[in-house]
Amino acid sequence: MDKKGRFYGIGIGPGDPDLITLKAVKILSEVDVVIAPAAKNESLALKIAKPYIKCHVKEMDFPMICDTDALKKIWSRNVKTIEKMLSDGLDTAFITLGDPMIYSTYTYILSRLCGYEVQTVPGITSFCAAASRIGKPIAEGDVPFAVMPVSDEKSVARVLKEFDSVVLMKVSRNYDDVVKQLKHNSFKGALVTRCGQANEKLEFDLDRHLGEKIDYLSLIIARRDNT
Ligand SMILES: C[S@@+](CC[C@H](N)C(=O)[O-])C[C@H]1O[C@@H](n2cnc3c(N)ncnc32)[C@H](O)[C@@H]1O
Fold first, then answer.
1. 120 and 139 co-located in one domain
2. Distance 48 CA to ligand 1 centre (A)
3. Are both 30 and 116 inside the same structural domain?
4. Same domain as 13, residue 119
5. Ligand 1 geometric centre to CA of 89 (Å)
6. Is residue 1 part of a domain?
7. Are residues 142 and 51 in the same domain?
8. Rounded distance from Cα 218 to ligand 1 centre (Å)
9. Are residues 103 and 210 in the same domain?
């Protein structure tokens, strides 16, 4: 039987081209195909990884839509395309911002792919990079912390009651409410936008951006003020 290709999920870090692992660079320079999310121009993930890629890049559509049925169809179609490449013996790498196992499309592919050898290469997460940029630890000693995407008001309220240290991702969905809830629960924090990228912004006054449209690539790291 012909040899099947291996599938790699490669975390390429938050955006700073120096924050990519040696392992990711090695694999990107060795594979036969790299899959990148399709974008109008070039996706950010591809921009970061490009210097290390020596092969064909296949752009794949992963739209940011809420229709779960439509999304599942698209993921299944993309998995079929990937399976074809792997069956043809092509080592194939899927690049993803930050870490592949944290809120990444990669996991939807991974869970549908069956009968192929897979290797996932971790990347530096956006929130670890952001904590370094603002110079504030996320947790010390025995303090637990929560990482959550902002979805509904109730789940944010619940997490702010239970934890003294939080990382809130996807804050662009409901920034004003998140800031209100942080204040109400005596949290202080920083908004980090496009961490590690040329247009990175660090903001310690969360009120300053109330009522504004917040960039999707933004997160808040916050701690209860008495800790
Ligand atoms: C789909 S998740 C991807 C997370 C990514 N896999 C990781 O490990 O960081 C997208 C969310 O991650 C956060 N994010 C990703 N990259 C970022 C960056 N460079 N700066 C700030 N936040 C970022 C934002 O909260 C954004 O809404």
1. no
2. 14
3. yes
4. yes
5. 32
6. no
7. no
8. 7
9. no
What's the CATH number where 88 sits? 3.40.1010.10
User: How big is the chain by its Cα radius of gyration, in Å?
Assistant: 19
How many angstroms separate the alpha carbon of residue 87 from the centre of ligand 1? 32
| Contact predicate 34/28, CB 8 Å | yes
Ligand 1 pocket test: pick from 109, 168, 215, 219 the residue with the most ligand atoms within 8 Å of its Cβ: 219
Whether 11 and 99 share a structural domain: yes
Q: What is the mean pLDDT of residues 90-116?
A: 95
**Residues framing ligand 1 (Cβ under 6 A):** 14-15, 97-99, 102-104, 125-126, 130, 169-170, 192-196, 216-219
Task: Say how far residue 141 (Cα) sits from the centre of its chain.
Answer: 26
Query: DSSP 3-state helix, strand, coil percentages of the chain (rounded to 5)?
Result: 35, 25, 40
Lateral strand order in the sheet of 33-37: 56-60, 33-37, 92-96, 7-11, 118-121
Domain that includes residue 66, residue range: 7-124
Q: What is the pLDDT of residues 34-79, one digit of tens each?
A: 999 888 878 999 999 999 999 999 999 887 788 888 988 999 999 9
